[in-house]
Amino acid sequence: MIRIKGAGILIKGVEIDNKLAKGGGKLFDLPLIKPITLKQAEAAQRRLSSNHLMMAEVELKIRKLASGYKGEKTLHYFLRLLPEKNYHIFHGLRLPARDSFFQMDAHLLSPKLIILLESKNYSGTLTIEKQQLTQEINNTKVVYDNPISQVNRHKILLQYFFLKYQIPPIPIETVVVFTNSSSEIKIANGYHEAEKKICKASNLLKKIDEIEKYYSKDKVDQKTIGKIKRLLLSKHTPFRSDFLKTLGIDRTDILPGVRCSDCWFIPMNYKKNKWICPVCQKISKEGSLEAINDYFLLINTSITNSELREFLQLPTRRASSYQLELLNLPSTGTKKGRVYHQPKDFL
Question: For labelling, which of 25, 39, 203, 280 has a CA lying 20 to 30 Å from the CA of 81?
Fold first, then answer.
């Protein structure tokens, strides 16, 4: 076995906001954002009663999704250290493949080559063999698909994608990045592909530098790079599931109303354009922001005046109209037929 020691840099509490995601410039063509599925799970946790039958499943989903997102933030931390001029970077790029999609954790584009990165935030002792990855932690053993096979599959699908849209051939390299600095990685004897394609996040910049040495000449010009960028962004389709249906949660189980930001009680009372918590007396003027965002995440991406009034538990149509005015949502239709839509990057 070949062992990769866990002596890398540990990134704690790295919060990636939009400014950080852009790296202070134009390095990130598709910035890192919190996955919609994680936002949905967090909204469900806020909106289900604590003793709901599916609460444990929701909390388990949050832990798994949050762990993956933490790994992507660690990956992002090191990618933003690359020189701006070297690469165009796309986080979470999800492209069509026949009647399905494939999603890459990070896609690095340059005139010389493309590098696809797959991040894994597993802890414990990880043994990589050709057919599988085995995780041993706390006296338990879990078997996963080999992540090298996964990222290689993405490479093949990306080549098919480029062929379909007549993009000139460009070399594609693949790397699996383990982002948990405390994990120990063991590679099966003779598994040379894994020795070449696996690294810890702290060694990512060195790995990219090693790959670049094999590609000294440009394969495509800047005009083609621009064409590829526009194509990737136009075909990017973020994943969004019907979260409640997936977990078998009935829509009527979702608690309506505005949640108190101090004691978390639902619902707050509405009086004179303010929200008042009947438990701790917290007063808020913007309580509807989180509530409407939860509605968009869990129930529907559009809402009418009457639906808003019902979900926020407002006393009058005039009160719901006032809240819609404050939210300033994009809309279609007129008068009583007006429908309000979830804006891009809401909250």
Answer: 39
